[in-house]
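#lab-general

N.A. 3:47 PM
ok so I finally got the sequence cleaned up, no stray characters, all 233 residues accounted for. can someone with queue access submit it? mine expired

B.Y. 3:52 PM
send it over

N.A. 3:53 PM
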Amino acid sequence: MKKKVGFTLLEVIVVIIIVGILAGLLTPLASIAIRRAKIKETKEKLEELNNALLLYYQNAIDAQNKLIAEFPNTGSDISEDDLTNWTSYLDDYITKENYAYDAWRVPFKYTYNVGAVSAVLRSYGPNRTGSDDDDIVYIVQAKSVWSKWRRIAQERLRKVNSAVERYKRGGGEITTGDTSEKLSGYLSGNDMYDPWGRPFRYNETLSTFYSDGADGTPGTNDDVYPSGVDTTP
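B.Y. 4:20 PM
back already:
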């Protein structure tokens, strides 16, 4: 007589226990993997938004079509409307609705102080609560953009001050209050203006032209002087 093949009740119980143990071990691992994937996704979004904000800073202009060196002036959340308004500065895929939110579907936070060369992007992280250790923070630094503009301004100032020497040899005079437009016969159009589209001003005390910088106001920290000029009293 053929012996029946099957599982005993004890064997079934043992299998159930083993499966339960494995499930208990794998569930936390799966949760960790999902958490890591979401953190990675959020960081990638922040990187893309960082690039977009730097493009905005580099290209933002005022009503007179002059560079203003500013980040977008929006609320504390980056909304879908904000991304739409930034369209001319963003790659097409960044304008999608999901770039307003982190991987946990919480709006990214955005902080910017007027006149600063940095901004802050923040995700509240896995616990969706701000000011905790799991927040994911990205500092957007426009210093590299500013440094580039400064180099451009100083290169043009070198040409402007060289033109001054030729202008003076021809009998001309330069005094405080004069702008580089006075040297139009000695300079190309671009070289008469700083990167923000304004003419350079002359400082008679320092015997040099200079730029008012991005804010267009003389005597502030973003004024640009030729390399090597000591502006201390």
